[in-house]
Amino acid sequence: MEEIVLSKSADKFIKRLSKLSEKKQMSLIDSHPWDEEYSDKSWLKRRENLSIYGTKFYDLATEDERIRLAKNETGGWWAAFITFENLVTEYYMKLINHQSLAKFPNVTEYMLHFCKEEIVHSMVFRKAMEHFQIEPAEVSEFIKNFYEDNASMEEFPLKAIYLTIIIEWFAENNAMIDLKNDFVSPLAAAVAVEHNKEETRHIAWGKRMVSEFCNQVPGFMDEAREFTPGFLRGLIDTIFGNVDIIERVNFAHPAFQNYDDFFETILFSDNKKRIDEEIMTPIFEFFIEIEIYHPDYRSYWEESRFCYIIDNILKKNEKK
Ligand SMILES: [Fe+2]
Ligand SMILES: [Fe+2]
Fold first, then answer.
1. How far is the CA of 116 from the centre of ligand 2 (A)?
2. In angstroms, what is the span from residue 273 Cα to ligand 2's centroid?
3. Going by fewer Cβ within 10 Å, which terminus of the chain is more open, N or C?
4. How far is ligand 1, taken at its centre, from the CA of residue 192, in Å?
């Protein structure tokens, strides 16, 4: 394998990210309005982004059930964040301790900031779950076994870094569109906004790592072109397809007992398509730019039902 190099401009960029992390960090006490009073009437996400919105199930649910669903869907993400952020910290620390990226000292330094920030984040999510009295829902195996399945210590760790940034970026876009509403609890909104401030740097770092190395690591591009669409489909349907979350809401109407009909309806609704497009557009723009999306691999995007989003971006790009 040819020697893998990092450009000077990328090195400088990553060093700057470390400086920004040194300057300001999330506090477990001061960054959020923890004095908000608990109420079981608090909305933790925007109504229009409920899985059932725009379907017959929305009309069959009571207002209290919708509020409980919002709470459990948001809590489902928080629980997934806690699991994932603990795992990514463990994995990145392992890379640091194994000297996997020692050739790039500024990268290693930034990864230390990254890990420190993730530990604080997972503590904040835990605190928020306690505040809103949310019992953590079952986190999917896909998240729990993430680094066991996707990371080997022998290779240059680009695949795991790539998958990590996709998860972080996707989850952040999701969290930010969920809170776009006045009646969302200010504490729940602050949990998302404060997290996003630090995640924006994690994502910038990950994007830079991927665009620097994607054409240097042999085989990476072909593999990524194949698995990315299916991986993203699994990810974006994780919470809306979680039976445990639905059971926690305890819907009274018997129609909610027919899981086949229920999940088929919400996972294929027009509203879900709208939400998916809102979340995925910035990510797909990046994939088109660095050619992770490639017309030769279009069938994978079709199979994962993402082509309408890709085509809307391509159309927009043509007009530029
Ligand atoms: Fe985080
Ligand atoms: Fe992160």
1. 10
2. 26
3. C
4. 10
CA of 45 to the centre of ligand 2 (A): 21
Range in 84-98, 134-148, 190-204, 246-260 the model is least confident about: 134-148
Per-residue confidence (pLDDT) for residue 1, from 0 to 100: 63
pLDDT higher than threshold 70 for residue 26: yes
pLDDT digits 0-9 by tens, 151-182: 777 789 999 999 999 999 999 999 999 988 87
pTM of the model: 0.94
62 CA to middle of ligand 2, Å? Answer: 36
Ligand nearest to C-alpha 82: 1
Ligand nearest to the CA of 113: 2
Distances (CA, A) of 290 to 193, 203, 272, 294, 312: 28, 15, 27, 9, 17
Residues with CB under 5 A from ligand 1 (ion): 85, 118, 121
Q: What distance in angstroms lies between residue 191's CA and the mean position of ligand 1's atoms? A: 11
Domain 44-319 sits in which CATH superfamily? Ribonucleotide Reductase, subunit A (1.10.620.20)
pLDDT tens-digit series, residues 93-125: 999 999 999 999 999 999 999 999 999 999 999
Domain positions in the chain are 44-319
